[in-house]
Amino acid sequence: MFLIVYVKTKKHTMKNFLILSIALITVLVFSCRPDTNGIVGEERSILSSLSGSWKLTKVTQTDEDAKRKGFPYQTMDLTSLFPYSEFQLTLNVASGAASNFTTTPGNSPKVISLTSGSWTVDDPAFPKNITLTSGNTTEVVTLGGYPVTGSEKLVLKKEKKDASGKVQVSYNYEFTKQ
Amino acid sequence: MHPVKCRFLIIMNLLNNKITETMKKLLILLAAILMGGFSFGQVTISPSSFTAEDEITVTVDVSNSEIGKTLIGASEAYLWIFSNPDIGGGKDGITNGTWGSSSDAAKVTSLGNNKWQFKFTATAMFGQSPGELKTFGFLLKSKDGSKQTADLKPYTFDPLVFVPTMLRIFPAKVDADDVITLNFERTYGVTVDEKRMTPVSATVTMFDDAGNQVGQSLTINATKVNESIWSAAMIPTRSFTASAGKKLAKFRYKFNGTVLGTTGAPQVVSSSETEVTFTSLK
Lengths: 178, 282
Description:
The complex is a heterodimer of chains A (178) and B (282). Chain A is 23% helix and 40% strand. Chain A has an eight-stranded antiparallel β-barrel. With 178 residues, chain A is α+β, with helices and mostly antiparallel strands. Helices cover 17% and strands 38% of the residues of chain B. Chain A binds chain B through residues 61-66, 69, 71-73, 76, 78, 81-82, 109-110, 160-166, 168-169, and chain B through 36-39, 46-49, 158, 160, 162, 168, 170-175, 177-179, 181, 233, 235, 238, 279-282.
């Protein structure tokens, strides 16, 4: 008699557990749906936001190997060590596409070697790399930050690799729109 | 026999049995082309930056008489390797054997045309910890030691732990276009003057790839960073121009300052000097 009651009670518990599990799975599966909200307002053009004259306002240098190894002395602010603030970059956009650029180095250390030419981006919607071309010479800089609404800062990053392809030194150039 | 060397020889034997000599040469050539390498004259090390715990491949061209010396044209060569040359705390490689009779494990692989190649991992080769291993040097020789190359040294291991030193550059690896910050940390001074001096400037002497001094030595004002660190920044290519066909290869630097003499008057002193070789960065 005791055994029958025990088996019935156990069956009941198992049934409840099964129902609870199915309910939980159902909630988990059907509760996660992608947001249906579309882009609010006009789609932002990152290319257009890059357009204009930019003045170099901050330069930092990173020892990427020290960073990888967790050593002290990983990053250094170079802004006041050399006349970097004399460097200016102008990026022009024509008909919504990247067109030409000019650089005015002044007495600044070398930031971008090319003084004028054309520029392109790897992805017009979400550019990561800017390729500057003058004749047969090209120079690639990585975008470290977009000048999005409320921010008039453009951040370009240059990485220097050794012969084995390992990044050893990087420079972050922060520009402010003129 | 060193396990890495043994593995390499087994692979080479298998290659010998299964493919023709021409194909073997072609494969070695392809491997050499594909491998990124640190080139220092006639010695190429792959990967270009390495710690004492990394296995590295060293390729040596001994066709130059200054390097090859009496080993030019030899049909076989043996490695004679040593750690920390000229700085103390060094050991001979475990595969060296004796000078008059190199061990078989020290035999290096011929790539033809006076080129030789070998692989090793420093901690295993020297039986020393990464902290003890700073540099290595080597030469190639005949088994009986009657023929040999010049000493090829020093090649520097990347540290696995940060080792504070009196003289330090930032970043640790630079090329001639980089902003280089020279640092003097008084805490790690060795001499009494170095431990007491107040730096006011740094002196930089530049050398080209032929070992010739480039221009005059440059003196840069030092800036106090904190109570024990002073720094001075430079961009080599802004201050030095190598002559036609040459490039800036390395520089030496030291800090200059004052200490108070026994009479209380300041005396001019300088720190010891250290040398930095540029790394090719692109």
